[in-house]
Amino acid sequence: MTENITDVLIIGAGPAGLQAAVHAVRKKASVVVLGRAERSSIYQAHVENYLCVDGVTEGSELMRVALGQAGRFGAVLLPEDVMQIEQQDGLFMVKSESKKHLARTIIIATGTSRKKLKVKGEKELVGRGVSYCVDCDANFFRNAKVAVVGNESAAVDGALTLTGYASEVYLIAKELSVTEELRQKLSQSKVQLKEGAWVGEIIGENAVTGIMLEDNTTLEVEGVFVELGAKGAMELAVNLGVQLDTETFTHIQTDKKQATNVGGIFAAGDICGHPYQMAKAVGEGCVAGLEAANYARRQKKEGDEV
Description:
By secondary structure, the chain is of the alpha/beta class. Helix content is 27%, strand content 28%. It has seven helices and 19 strands. It has helices at residues 15-26, 59-73, 134-137, 153-162, 180-187, 235-239, 278-305, and strands at 2-11, 31-34, 46-47, 57-58, 76-78, 82-88, 91-96, 100-108, 112-114, 130-131, 145-149, 168-173, 192-195, 199-204, 208-213, 218-219, 223-226, 230-232, 265-267. Strands 1, 2, 5, 6, 7, 8 and 19 form a seven-stranded mixed sheet that branches. β12 (168-173), α5 (180-187) and β13 form a beta-alpha-beta unit. α1 packs parallel to α2 (59-73) and α1 packs parallel to α7 (278-305). It starts with a strand and ends with a helix.
């Protein structure tokens, strides 16, 4: 059964999506948010570099507060995945797991899906030594031994960044695929490159204590940064004709109002590209929420005049 028309439908319940919801609903727009907050990359993070956060705060606690805030202002929160989106008579028909929604505007704030190593110990130790964001968590590993796992520029850049924090930095790579300039920069750094190796297991019970390589060599480390790149959930956007960035085709391209090339579709947060930081996501969510609410109001006005 199709629901009544929603002004702003937001796909994604992370910092960008929930901030968009707060601003859109306060602009008197009806708002539905589809997504699960626990899937947000910030949910497992420890936050201390966000303005007005005093000390270290758990990402899960920030998301709990954000969900309550968005709901209190009047946004409808549905922890469901989106299965399909179609344009229908000037509106968007969005099919979620349990129902269909008609919306005047859409904000895509799905974030990115961080690629996993898929080895023993990885899932269990996320947030307890396993991280997918050097920029977010490097400061928590001052004077510690850490390892970065990856073959491309993101891994090399992360390893180089960590030399300013950690006492020892290993870079585990099956085969580096970077420019000669970056490889030379790596060779001149304190990073200990283990090329031709890969992680077979992450060791630890309550926290990371080491990694075992596929050749059974063990490295004692307190942190493991998985830098395999980030793949955006692009299928829904591409099917609607939304333009991606022209260099990597992994992020949605928007203007300063967070609008895409398709009228009525906005995007915010990690899905719009680097840096993958909560501050950026919240700022873009603010803009997207305001602009989507304004767009929906114009659409309703034009409909009344027809």
